[in-house]
Amino acid sequence: MDKMIPFMDWPGKYSSMDSMTFMGSPFPLLLIICSYLYFVLFMGPKMMELRRPMNIRIIILPYNILQAFLFSYIVLEMINNGFSFELTWKCVVENGEDMNELHNNMWLFMILRIFELFETIFVVLRKKRSQLTFLHIYHQTTSVLVFWILLKYHSGMMEIFLIVISSIGHVIKTNKRW
């Protein structure tokens, strides 16, 4: 019984990615997403139904600053590790050593996507129901799942391109909130 149960064995494209937190199996990530959906769609609104909106600016401001800093860090690290845009919008990495650093930054991006689920929780706690759209919830959940799948089974240049563009967008979006 040295081998894992077959349905629990989820080898990815790169063994280095398999050893990172949340990358060994989809089940912990699915548990987080199911808990998020339960809170956002059922428990949170029910809990806030008879309460006044929470004033959580003291949490949101450091959260936004940290998000802007970390997304900026990812962009700078990707550039420092050999990422560049060519005229054809193709990504280039010069050597395999840089690819390990890029994988670390890709993983960090996915972790930030998980922490971004808190944005919706903040919306629920502040009773801003107009911001709580199907598209918002769909985007938050699927972006985490899609990046997990891409990192686990592909981890190529297209993901790096998407991460850099998305990170730049998040820095701009976060800075507009200040």
Automatic annotation (TrEMBL):
Q: Which InterPro entries match?
A: ELO_fam (IPR002076)
Transmembrane regions listed in the UniProt entry = 20-44, 56-76, 106-125, 132-150, 156-172
Transmembrane as a keyword of this entry, yes or no, is yes
Give an example GO cellular component term for this record: endoplasmic reticulum membrane
Give the protein name, as stated in the record: Elongation of very long chain fatty acids protein
Similarity comment text for this entry: Belongs to the ELO family.
**EC class:** transferase
Q: Which domain of life is it from?
A: Eukaryota
Q: How does it sit in the membrane?
A: Multi-pass membrane protein
User: Where in the cell does this protein reside?
Assistant: Membrane
> What keywords does the record list, in alphabetical order?
Fatty acid biosynthesis, Fatty acid metabolism, Lipid biosynthesis, Lipid metabolism, Membrane, Transferase, Transmembrane, Transmembrane helix
Biological process terms from the Gene Ontology for this record are: fatty acid elongation, monounsaturated fatty acid; fatty acid elongation, polyunsaturated fatty acid; fatty acid elongation, saturated fatty acid; sphingolipid biosynthetic process; very long-chain fatty acid biosynthetic process
Q: Which GO terms describe its molecular function?
A: fatty acid elongase activity
From the UniProt record, list the reaction(s) this protein catalyses: a very-long-chain acyl-CoA + malonyl-CoA + H(+) = a very-long-chain 3-oxoacyl-CoA + CO2 + CoA
Its EC number is 2.3.1.199
